[in-house]
Design a protein that fits this description.
Elements: E1 16-20, H1 33-45, E2 50-52, H2 65-77, H3 94-107, E3 111-114, H4 125-139, E4 144-149, H5 151-154, H6 160-169, E5 174-179, H7 184-194, E6 200-203, H8 209-214, E7 219-222, H9 225-238, H10 242-258, H11 263-275, H12 292-304, H13 315-319
Parallel strand pairs: 1-2, 1-7, 3-4, 4-5, 5-6, 6-7
């Protein structure tokens, strides 16, 4: 495999393509780990190096504490390697964040993705530093923490100054960041400031995968990887050249297709139609399933992107 710009990214725990995995739900809206595990196994077999479970796309903040544990335990019980999963454990409160992080460590996960405490807006960097200090001290190591920078959703961004302060105070504990800001300049600033010390920067946007790899980032953790991971795997393996460029074009087109309708129900619709499994349309309020017209539109957009049928989902499997 071609080397990253910074060779130390070869040691990234989740280097490459990571899907922000949809959480399968039963008709009563409870988690369905068996159906989710089937999808997770397909992702790992078709371009994904790892799995970001229980994040934004996985509707983690619509699930209760015990349900989040049930999902992770269920995936492990159904054969999904814990080491391949980076569960989201960040909540609006300290004790649940610590409990979920310790639970992920006990399951064998190597890293967790942690939102800032997002209910109270405009906290100071001092306040955020105090919060993450408590998380780190109460979890006691043994699992890597990745910061989840998604200010459009959390309204609480991570500043470069705060990241630098955390890295200096807790060397080796804060391993990287998922940047879902959509601001490539911000991602590049994180790479320039911290990647030389092995800090892993993951894009939350598919269109930046090829670029971020070239500039020393570790890869991506993205929602559209639920359906485009095959092409992400090509970009990660090839990096440059006609095949990588063509695959990156599919990533960019599928990202735009995915965001042409409400993102989470749109991805559920793509997986439901691709697998023939109606259960993928089940979603927790306040999210709602797509209308038939929206479903037809997003399906047509994925077709236009050249991504359908999804590689590895044969007609026999779709009918199963």
């Amino acid at each position: 495999m071609p080397a990253c710009k910074d060779a130390r990214m070869q040691d990234a725990l989740f280097g490459g393509v990571n899907a922000a995995v949809l959480t399968a739900l039963a008709p009563d809206l409870s988690p369905d780990p068996a159906l989710m595990a089937t999808h997770a196994a397909w992702l790992l077999a078709h371009g994904c190096n790892g799995l970001g479970v229980l994040g934004t796309t996985g509707e983690a903040n619509s699930l209760g504490l015990q349900e989040r544990k049930q999902v992770l335990e269920g995936l492990v019980a159904h054969g999904i390697p814990a080491a391949a999963m980076m569960p989201g454990t960040g909540t609006a409160n300290l004790t649940d964040t610590v409990e979920l992080t310790l639970h992920a460590r006990a399951q064998g996960c190597r890293g967790v993705l942690v939102l800032p405490p997002f209910y109270y807006k405009s906290p100071s960097d001092d306040g955020l530093f105090a919060y993450f200090s408590e998380v780190l001290q109460r979890t006691g190591g043994g699992i890597a923490l990745y910061l989840y920078n998604f200010p459009q959703q959390s309204a609480v961004p991570f500043s470069l100054a705060l990241i630098e302060r955390l890295l200096k105070a807790y060397p080796g504990a804060i391993r990287g960041v998922k940047d879902s800001s959509g601001d490539y300049a911000n991602m590049k600033a994180m790479i320039d400031a911290f990647a030389g010390d092995g800090f892993e920067v993951y894009s939350g946007s598919d269109e930046y995968l090829q670029r971020i790899l070239a500039e020393g980032g570790a890869g991506c953790i993205t929602a559209a990887s639920n359906g485009n991971s095959h092409w992400g795997g090509i970009v990660y393996a090839k990096r440059t050249g006609p095949e990588a460029d063509a695959a990156q074009a599919v990533l960019t087109a599928t990202r735009r297709a995915a965001t042409s309708v409400p993102l989470i129900p749109g991805l559920r619709e793509i997986i439901a139609r691709s697998t023939g499994q109606e259960g993928w349309r089940t979603i927790r309020p306040p999210h709602l399933p797509l209308t038939r017209e929206q479903g037809d539109a997003v399906w047509a957009a994925w077709q236009a992107a050249g991504a359908l049928p999804l590689p590895g989902l044969t007609p026999a499997r779709r009918a199963a």
